[in-house]
Amino acid sequence: MLSFDSSLTDALTTHSTTAFWVLKLYYNDESSFYGVSDQDRIDGSDTYYGIVSSWGNLNQSLDFFNFTTSTGNMSVKLINTDNTIEGGRFSDLFSTNNFANRKWELFLNTNRAGTYDTAARMIGTGIISGDIKYDPKFITLTLLDKSSTYHKQLPTNVVDSATYANAPEKNIDKPIPIAYGDFQERTDIGTIPTSGAEFDRHFVKSRFPAIITDRYDSASSRVEAKPDSQAFSSLDTKNIFIYSNNNYYACEDGNVSVTAATPIVEYSGIEFRSYHRLSSHSTYSSAFGSGYANTINNDFSSSYTLVINTPTGGSHEAQIGWRIPKIEKNGENIDTIKLLFDFGTFSGTTPVRFGNSYNFQLSSGAETDKQVTWNSGDQSVDITSWYSSTEKDAWNLEKTFLLEIDDGGNQNDDQSVVINEVGLEVTFEPSQTFSKEIEEFFETTIRGDSLKDEFDEGEPVPETVMIARTKTIKIAAVVDYVYCSGKGRKYSAFIDADDRDNGYDENDLIENPVYMIEDILRTELSLASANIDYDSFDASGDTSDGYLGDIYNDAVGDVEFAFSQYKFINSKDLISRLCKQILSWVFIGGDGKFKIKTLRRTGDYSGSDKTIDFNDISLKSISRTSLGVVRNDITINYNHDYGQNQFISSVNTTDATSQGTTVNGVSQALKLEFDADTLDSTTATQLADAYKTIFKDRKVILDFECLRPYYNDLEIGDIVLFSNWDSNIKIYGAAMGTDYYLITSISKKPNGCSVKAIKVS
Fold it and tell me: Pick from 704, 719, 694, 671: which is nearest to 625 by CA?
């Protein structure tokens, strides 16, 4: 809602108040303007010529179900006869003044005293369209919002030949990606070993592309690549990869250098590592029961305990086995083959004797036993000697092997070892393929064809509707990338500026999608606090009580987004894509600032921006949103793999009541599917639930006229209540109670406004 000054608010409260508009039309360098109004008005040194023949309506609207907006559009018709302005026609000013693509500002005032053009009275601003039509009597100006002046193609930074003289030719003029969120540590599979057996180089959340900017840097003798142009939270030398043969191969970290502040990654050499999951050994998988699978399930939080029972004259050892399966040939010149063991605790009253004879032993069939030195930590066991040169050249690595514990017959108590995970790591020379074919090189949002407009009842309900993350213009391109697993952009100083207290600090990792949008506005579009209603962003994204937590039905801190924007996209389309995923609208308000409004669940509303007196309105209609926007079977695709260029995980949720035949049902399963910029299953699950909660039912719509300008401070996304409602007018059979409505469109005139609002409580 706009913040009018108290003098204007007090004046508008009085029913007898006459309101009027004054309009500033800037020209040339925008240091000067011509003022116009419905009659001649003087405001200090400013003159407003009374040449407005008619005001168009100042319109704002939002698409409730597609989370897009259209704001600040209107037209004004000016008298263009002779001697109406500075001794001539308004069109005569065009010889020295250019108004096209220049700023306009509209202010609401009353017949009470007061300065006309204060910021607290502005209700609209934007740019004047270049489509100016006139005749000897009238001239019509179309006034647009400022979207076209702010928005631009992203990423803004590209691999230009002047800066990156040694970049691959195919990478010239291609975008340097933008990356947000945590791609690095997996937190859902227990504690991943980082030493001994370095599983951490292979078990990451995901990997994002870094475009190669230097094929061979002479100073460092390395290949250089950039995953972004802004500072990162962190990068790890263990987590630099190439993508080849549909697999990611980790570069030997001793050959890697990373700088998060730049950010840049550099690597050299031909030593890369691949990781392979083991298969079950037929003898042991059945004998050890379900616990055996815990050793090869890619989950370090589950385990199997291998036990030597208290000896009674029998054996003093215990064995477990696995199988190395058939592995696709990934490259040439295998250097080492290692088994990685994540051990838990070794238990027993008396410690096991260490030494060559009494230890953990590893064997493979008839091969010589391989002693595993137990050091109370995880183990990386080199088994390269098990294979001949011929077997290594052919990647013929299939083999069964056993792990044995042996107390040497000298212990009187049970001995055991916890085995969390076992895997195979191969160090080799892959085909260093950097080229990635990007057939979908430019992304844009789908406009108007994802869901029907909520007020349109004219078309049949489709069985399945797909909302894509974006649609793409297919421009074939081949780009050279390496891949990283790290933590993307971090908050800059804006998050602490202006006395903000939202739970985040400068240099924290940006995972909150609300602030990803604000970072795009500031970093990519170069906007400052004067252009951003940062209070609205904090209302949506604050860690303690942000509305994002309401719509996700989760703690704000648990809503974790992570993505890399490595294709060109218009900034408005990128913001719209994110808005769909947080059920929010971003728009330029009447005060000229970017704002965000986040939808909440029906039980979360407890207050309104304004209360509308029923006696001040003329009710035009009561209706419901169309069947065409009901969706009760929701699928969210997530966890995008940038090498495969596809989403590899999904969640689904349905609502039986909505699909049923009761009074609250539509007697049909109606599907919605789209892609989300998250790697986190909880975030995807809660997003699916949010869409189900909002989309499964038809919503009540009120269409009414406000007969007084008192309500002209309202904007789209504002929440309103009603007082003095006529008790004889029921809302689909129910009395109007403390019901909250969200404004979806508002069309303002000097003396009132037309409003459509959807019930959200």
Answer: 694
Alpha-carbon gap, residue 451 to 277, rounded angstroms: 43
Residues 323-353 have pLDDT tens digits of 999 999 988 899 999 999 998 887 764 444 3
CB distance 251 to 269 below 8 Å? yes
Say if residues 101 and 27 touch (Cβ distance below 8 Å).
Answer: no
Helices (H) and strands (E) in the chain, counts: 10, 47
Q: Please tell me the predicted confidence (pLDDT) of residue 359.
A: 44
Distance from C-alpha of 482 to C-alpha of 240, rounded to nearest angstrom:
7
d(C-alpha 263, C-alpha 174), whole Å:
17
Q: What is the mean pLDDT of the chain?
A: 89
**Domain final position from 146, 180, 199:** 146
Of 323, 312, 238, 309, the closest CA to residue 279 belongs to: 323
Residues in the chain: 761
Q: What is the pTM of this model?
A: 0.91
Let me know: does 421 contact 296? Beta carbons within 8 Å.
yes
In a domain, 84, yes or no: yes
Residue linked to tokens 């890619």: 298
Per the domain annotation, does 377 fall within a domain?
yes
pLDDT greater than 90 at residue 125: yes
Check: CB of residue 553 under 8 Å from CB of residue 689.
yes
Look at the chain and report how many structural domains it folds into: 2
383 vs 200, 319, 333, 348, 424, CA distance in Å? 20, 18, 16, 29, 10
Residue 15, SS3 per DSSP: coil
Closest CA to 469 of 548, 585, 569, 597: 569
CB 747 within 8 A of CB 753: yes
Is 568 in contact with 521 (CB distance < 8 Å)?
no
The string of pLDDT tens digits covering residues 362-408 is: 766 544 566 665 555 678 888 998 899 999 999 999 988 888 776 66
Last residue of a domain, one of 146, 172, 190: 146
Same domain as 138, residue 282: no
Residue 749 and residue 58: Cα distance in Å, rounded? Answer: 7
**Which 3 state secondary structure label does DSSP give 488?**
strand
Tokens coding 539: 């209302």
Could you tell me if residue 337 is inside a domain?
yes
Q: Are 529 and 593 in contact (CB under 8 A)?
A: no
Distance between CA atoms of residues 519 and 229, nearest Å: 13
Confidence of residue 452 (pLDDT cuts 50, 70, 90): very low
* CATH code of the domain covering residue 357: 2.60.120
DSSP, collapsed to helix, strand or coil, labels residue 536 as helix
pLDDT at 699 over 60: yes
The per-residue pLDDT for 344 is 86
Domain range for 130: 6-146
Write out the DSSP string of 127-173. Answer: EE-S--EE-SSEEEEEEE-SHHHH--EE---B--TTT-TTS-GGGTT
pLDDT of 222: 84
**Distance between the two ends of the chain, CA-based, in angstroms?**
19
Whether the Cβ atoms of residue 37 and residue 131 lie closer than 8 Å to each other: no
Q: Which of 373, 378, 365 is nearest to 322 (CA)?
A: 365
pLDDT given for residue 370 in this prediction? 66
126: in domain: yes
Q: Are 369 and 362 in contact (CB under 8 A)?
A: yes
668-689 pLDDT tens trace: 999 999 899 999 999 999 999 9
How far apart are alpha carbons 199 and 221 in whole angstroms? Answer: 28
CA 676 vs CA 321, 482, 577, 597, 688: distances in Å: 41, 23, 9, 19, 10
Count CA atoms closer than 13 A to 346's CA, side-chain side.
18
84: its two tokens: 């109406």
Lookup result for tokens 């070892």: 417
CB 276 within 8 A of CB 424: yes
Please indicate whether residue 96 or residue 357 has the higher confidence score (pLDDT).
96
Strand partners, 478: 437
